[in-house]
Design a protein that fits this description.
Elements lengths: L2 H24 L18 H23 L5 H4 L2 H22 L8 H9 L11 E4 L2 E4 L4 H23 L5 H35 L12
Antiparallel strand pairs: 1-2
Helix pairs in contact: 1-4, 1-6, 2-4, 2-7, 4-7, 5-7
Length: about 220
């Protein structure tokens, strides 16, 4: 088997492992200590979300950068652990943001999948999330549909991971780049989560319109 064939086999194996990890990961929604923030409180949900996002982004940068330190071939072995470490922090961030907007009860695997990975493969989410006016509605998925989206996301993530993997042969520089990407990626996750849950909360808080009266007789 030639080097190219070996590389293709390794890439396909990593894609499959990443896809399976995504399906397994989004099935577990972490609990949150954050609760809905009302208008009478001194801090707004958006302000608290920014605080949480900065903290989570720093954590993911440190986690990803640290796991990218092993040089050369050893660095390749840390790709999946790096991804799952970052996802764990990001999933907690999504759960916390949902809590801020009073959406913890409705947070499920589809919401988690959308928030964590929409920015990585937007086309894969066309059938999962639809706009209804100013709201984004996230549909329930069959197991097959969930696996299909996970495969699409897994391909994109694997391609980026392999591209970043080249930098692992320059340990300190590579670790800095991987950490910076994790920081940016976490902010994108937070942006998606705030957009999703803030619009739903705003819709729920609006008073119902008064019933229309018929013409006077």
């Amino acid at each position: 088997m030639g080097d190219d064939a070996i590389a293709d086999t390794g890439r396909a194996d990593l894609q499959e492992r990443v896809s399976r990890a995504i399906v397994k990961f989004v099935a577990r929604v972490p609990a949150t200590a954050e609760s809905a923030i009302g208008h009478e409180q001194p801090i707004t949900p958006a302000a608290r979300a920014r605080e949480l996002t900065h903290s989570a982004a720093m954590k993911t940068a440190l986690a990803a950068g640290g796991l990218a330190l092993p040089p050369g071939p050893l660095g390749w072995l840390t790709i999946l652990p790096e991804l799952t470490a970052v996802w764990k922090i990001q999933a907690q961030l999504v759960s916390d943001i949902a809590g801020l907007y009073g959406a913890s009860a409705t947070l499920d695997r589809e919401h988690m999948l959308y928030c964590l990975f929409r920015h990585t493969a937007a086309q894969a989410f066309r059938d999962l999330a639809v706009r209804a006016g100013e709201r984004i509605l996230v549909r329930r998925l069959s197991t097959g549909a969930l696996q299909s989206i996970a495969r699409s996301v897994g391909i994109g993530i694997t391609q980026r991971a392999i591209g970043k993997g080249v930098t692992r042969f320059v340990p300190l520089l590579g670790a800095a780049g991987v950490g910076a990407y994790a920081y940016f990626d976490t902010r994108q996750v937070a942006k998606t989560a705030v957009e999703l849950f803030a619009q739903a909360a705003e819709h729920e808080s609006q008073p119902a319109s008064a019933p229309r009266r018929g013409p006077r007789r």
